[in-house]
Amino acid sequence: MSELEKAARDAIEAADNTRHIEMIAAVLAAQQLLANQQQPQQPACQHQRQGRPASEWLGIGAAVCVGGVGLAFASIAIAIGALSVAVLALVLRSMWADVQQGKGRR
Prior knowledge:
Layout: H1 3-38, H2 54-101
């Protein structure tokens, strides 16, 4: 068998393979079209959850209120503490000045 005969046989075989591949691709495309046509369309769910329910918002509001009151009490406590420290510093300063001037002796 010559090289030319081998090449001709390979060309014929390749052409047959190409036809087979094209036929397989066409069968697969037809099956996919049939499968898409047979599947019924799913109706859109009309009961989708939109946002949060009212009870959840009430819980969030209550938590914010409790947190706000706690923050207010903490702020008041800090202010009272700062005022106490300021008064203490003034009293100690006054006492130190009296000790320095000698008024502290009897």
